[in-house]
UniProtKB/TrEMBL annotation:
Residues 9-153 form the Nitroreductase domain. Keywords: Oxidoreductase. It comes from the Bacteria. InterPro entries: Nitroreductase, Nitroreductase-like. Belongs to the nitroreductase family. This is Diguanylate cyclase. Gene3D superfamilies: NADH Oxidase.
Amino acid sequence: MNESIKNLLERRSIRAYKKELVPKETLDTILEAGEYSPSGMGQQSTLMVVTQDPELVARLSKMNAAVMGSTSDPFYGAPTVIIVFSDSKMGTCVENGSLVMGNLMNAAHALGVDSCWIHRAKEVFDSEEGKELKKQWGVPEEYIGVGHCVLGYRDCEYPTAKPRKDGFVIRV
C-alpha cells in the first residue's frame, strides 16, 4: 500500500500524552506541512501559533475547559499545542483552517507523533482573555480560532479504528 494512503487510514486521535516534547526538527516539519495546506484561491489566509511552554499550554487548556464548563484537561496532557487561526473575511476561512489542521495531524502521524483536534478555539479566542493573547501574539483581530492541534507521544494503547458505517459513500 502507498505510504501516504497508509498514514491516512491508520491515523487516530490520541487522548493521553507523555510529557516528552516533540523535537524541534520534527515539529518544524509538521508545521511546514501545515503551511503547505491547500487554501481557497491560494490566499494562504491562516496562521499557526505554536507553543511548548508548559505554563501557556496549561493556561490554554484551562481557557478551553472553561468554555465546556469543566475543570478537566481537554488537551489530555499533550505538551505541544498549535492553534490554527483563519481570516474571517475569507468565505472559506473554516475550510482553510480545517485543511491546515488535517495536514498537521497527518504529518504528525507520518513522523511518529500523536495528535488530536481539540475544538472550541473560536470561543476561546472570542473571550477577552483570548483576544488579549491574539493581540500579544500579533494575530490580526479578524482572525478566528479554528482548532487546537495537540501533539505529543501517547501514554496509552493505540486505538483501533471503529468500523466504517454503511452508506458513507454514495456512488451515482
